[in-house]
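Private note to self, pasted from the team thread so I don't lose it. Backbone tokens:
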């Protein structure tokens, strides 16, 4: 038996899925304009386990989107994943959120580069660049956007910019040959193949020490004066 539960909570979309030997068999996700992860995540997990008639004791691993992304969302997802792994004594798999975002686009062969882009306040985004062979051209980092962003890496190659940070980039009229998918969010449904490869390679996290990949310190806003 090789059931893996996947948890993705890095944005306002909350999603879970279960795969058997890397093949998706059930999932649930909800996208709303607020964080409902604390209320919905464990309900979603319970629902899909019941749907395929298995229990947490049947799971062989739990995989979680480790960031970058929302501090609150990542913290909730990682806490849930670690809790199940501790309780069932099973491995924990951590996956970069940006790798999850680009996973469904690799086989389309329409673009030279994929640029996932998560909004990170003001004109900052969390981003990276991948080529069509799934190789990093630019490692994950927090970038302040400008019209010149990424041109030194991709020059005139065709690029698909993916995610909720793409709309900010689009307004700058960047120099790169950019196409946009602004509606795509990272989803647990797209984690199945990635995490199965991690599982086969025994690429597991230290459950006790594992923390989300926040990339930069969470900044609290001062309350507005009334």
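Design output:
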């Amino acid at each position: 038996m090789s059931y893996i539960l996947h948890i993705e909570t890095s944005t306002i979309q909350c999603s879970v899925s279960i795969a058997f030997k890397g093949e998706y068999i059930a999932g649930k996700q909800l996208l709303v304009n607020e964080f409902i992860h604390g209320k919905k995540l464990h309900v979603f997990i319970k629902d899909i386990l019941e749907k395929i008639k298995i229990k947490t004791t049947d799971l062989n691993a739990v995989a979680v989107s480790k960031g970058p992304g929302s501090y609150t969302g990542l913290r909730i997802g990682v806490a849930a994943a670690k809790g199940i792994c501790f309780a069932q004594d099973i491995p924990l798999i951590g996956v970069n959120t940006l790798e999850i975002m680009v996973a469904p686009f690799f086989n389309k062969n329409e673009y030279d580069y994929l640029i996932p882009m998560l909004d990170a306040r003001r004109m900052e985004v969390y981003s990276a660049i991948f080529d069509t062979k799934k190789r990093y051209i630019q490692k994950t980092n927090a970038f302040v956007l400008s019209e010149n962003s990424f041109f030194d890496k991709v020059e005139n190659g065709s690029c698909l910019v993916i995610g909720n940070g793409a709309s900010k980039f689009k307004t700058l009229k960047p120099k790169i040959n950019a196409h946009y998918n602004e509606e795509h969010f990272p989803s647990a449904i797209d984690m199945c193949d990635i995490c199965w490869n991690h599982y086969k390679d025994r690429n597991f996290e230290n459950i006790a020490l594992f923390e989300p990949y926040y990339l930069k310190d969470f900044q609290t806003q001062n309350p507005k004066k009334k």
